[in-house]
Prior knowledge:
Layout: E1 3-7, H1 13-29, E2 34-36, H2 42-45, H3 53-66, E3 69-73, H4 81-91, E4 97-100, H5 112-120, H6 132-141, E5 142-145, H7 148-156
Parallel strand pairs: 1-2, 1-3, 3-4, 4-5
Helix pairs in contact: 1-7, 4-6
Protein name: Nucleoside 2-deoxyribosyltransferase
InterPro entries: 2'-dNMP_N-hydrolase, Nucleoside_deoxyribTrfase
Amino acid sequence: MKKGYLANGLFGLGDRLVNELVAKEIRASLPGVDLYVPQENAAINDKMAYADSLLIASADIEALKESDFLVAVIDGVEIDSGVAAEIGAFSMLDRPIYALYTDTRQQGRENTKKIEALIADGTENQFMYRNLFVIGLIKQNGVIVSSIEELGRALRN
């Protein structure tokens, strides 16, 4: 049975809803998968209870070590710091990483006006920046997809 890990922020409603959608797609694409979703781990994420940093790190590192693949959501103004750390830790295992990056500013890359504006004035950046170290870690053993449906296809392949 395949084991996977879903990395994303989990404190805001938007992130929790995205996690539910992504987890549903992963489970549909890989029937029987044992998927670790940190927000589903009440032992460390029930905010009415107490879990210290060592317990959280231990639980998540153990789940990463046991996983055959990582799905990381890299949306947001910046990649969530916890997600970046999970990508870094998981990359050391040389196992597949599937990054989901849905930002609509990826569209229109062939529009020469956008490129010309960027060349003329660096503040006219029509595109999002992702940390290149983190992107490199993903690309070493994985792929970046731009939709939940594309993620499902990548996982099935």
